Amino acid sequence: MDDHPLFVRGLELLLPITTSGRAEVVASTGDAAAAAALVSTCRPDLALVDLHMPPPGGIRAVAAIRRTTPRVRVVAMSGSAEPGPAVEALRAGAEGFLPKTSEPEELLPPLLAILDGWAVLPAELLRTMLRPTRATPDLDGEERRLLRAIATGRSTVDIAEELHVSERTVKRMTAALLRTLRVSNRAEAAAVAGHSGILDE
């Protein structure tokens, strides 16, 4: 979802070549209002959303995509160094953020990592998110263990093996933990873990 045709065309050309056909652009639009409907129709694995599209804008597009197709991974992008819109996009449901100032080739490894289930954030944005903003809720031992696993990038399968529960149970526990922390996704949960010192336990 990007209103810059040259950027989109660059991804269309580079993705299939550099990923040996693993990734390709299946559809694009520069209209933020049409983004959710397009994603719902095409059902891609990942939706890349420019935060600075014309109104209603990229952040609303992220939120709409998350509501209509919650299984699609949403990645926000921006050409601005201002962290505010990126943090808003993460709160709206984006599972990663990438700067458009990177060369297209540099975007491919993090995009593939996101497809593999990782949350990807630039270091400066992560530092911004780690600044004290809220008190960390009291968590029991199992919740703290789950949060540490999420913050260190463990997959659902790995967490299930570590906790000796099913993958479905891990997903249910993760959803409950996100509600407890009052965050929207794993990336924000990882930021809370870093700020609270849970990773150092």
The oligomeric status of these chains comes to single chain
- Mean pLDDT over the residues: 84
Order of helices and strands, N to C? HHEHEHEHHHHHH
Class by alpha and beta content: mainly alpha
Biggest sheet layout: 3 strands, parallel
Spatial arrangement of strands, main beta sheet: 1-2-3
Number of helical regions: 10
How far apart are the first and last residues' alpha carbons, in Å?
40 Å
Tell me how many strands there are: 3
- Give the C-alpha Rg: 17 Å
Give start-end ranges of low-pLDDT stretches: none
Give the helix level as a range of percent. Answer: 40-55%
What amount of the residues lies in strands? Answer: 5-15%
What is the overall shape? Answer: globular
Task: Chart the SSEs and their pairings.
Elements: H1 5-18, H2 35-42, E1 46-50, H3 58-68, E2 73-78, H4 83-92, E3 96-99, H5 104-115, H6 123-130, H7 141-151, H8 156-163, H9 167-181, H10 186-196
Parallel strand pairs: 1-2, 2-3
Helix pairs in contact: 2-3, 3-4, 7-10, 8-9
Task: Summarize the structure in words.
With 201 residues, the protein is mainly α. It is built from 10 helices and 3 strands, in the order ααβαβαβαααααα. It has helices at 5-18, 35-42, 58-68, 83-92, 104-115, 123-130, 141-151, 156-163, 167-181, 186-196, and strands at 46-50, 73-78, 96-99. It has a 3-stranded parallel beta sheet with strand order 1-2-3, sandwiched between helices.
Features:
201 residues; mainly alpha; three-stranded parallel β-sheet; 3 strands; globular
Structure summarized in a few sentences:
It contains 10 helices and 3 strands.
